[in-house]
Write a structure and sequence with these properties.
This protein has 81 residues and is mainly α. It contains three helices and no strands. The model has no long low-confidence stretch (mean pLDDT 94).
C-alpha cells in the first residue's frame, strides 16, 4: 500500500466516518478542518506505526500536513533517514 493510499483510507475512516468521496491527495485538510492540529499527532502515531519510521518533532508543522500529498512527501523524507 502506498503512503497516499494509506493516508486517504485512514483519514476517511477516522475523521470522515468512512465517507472519503471527494477526498483527494490535494484536498486542503487543515483548511477544511478535516483534521485539527491536535489530531495531527494521532495521525503521526499511525504513520509511524504503519511505516516503521520516526517523524521528528521539528517536522510536525502545519505545512507538512496541509494535504495528503504533503504528508506523503514527509513520509518519504523520513523513510530515507
Amino acid at each position: 500500500m502506498t503512503a497516499t493510499n494509506f493516508l486517504l483510507e485512514h483519514i476517511a475512516d477516522v475523521w470522515l466516518r468512512g465517507e472519503g468521496e471527494g477526498l483527494s491527495a490535494d484536498t486542503p485538510l487543515l483548511e477544511l478542518n478535516i483534521i485539527s492540529s491536535a489530531e495531527v499527532f494521532d495521525l503521526v502515531h499511525s504513520i509511524q506505526a504503519k511505516f516503521g519510521i520516526v517523524i521528528p518533532l521539528r517536522d510536525i508543522r502545519p505545512e507538512n500536513f496541509q494535504t495528503v500529498s504533503a504528508i506523503a512527501d514527509l513520509i518519504e523524507r523520513c523513510g530515507k533517514n
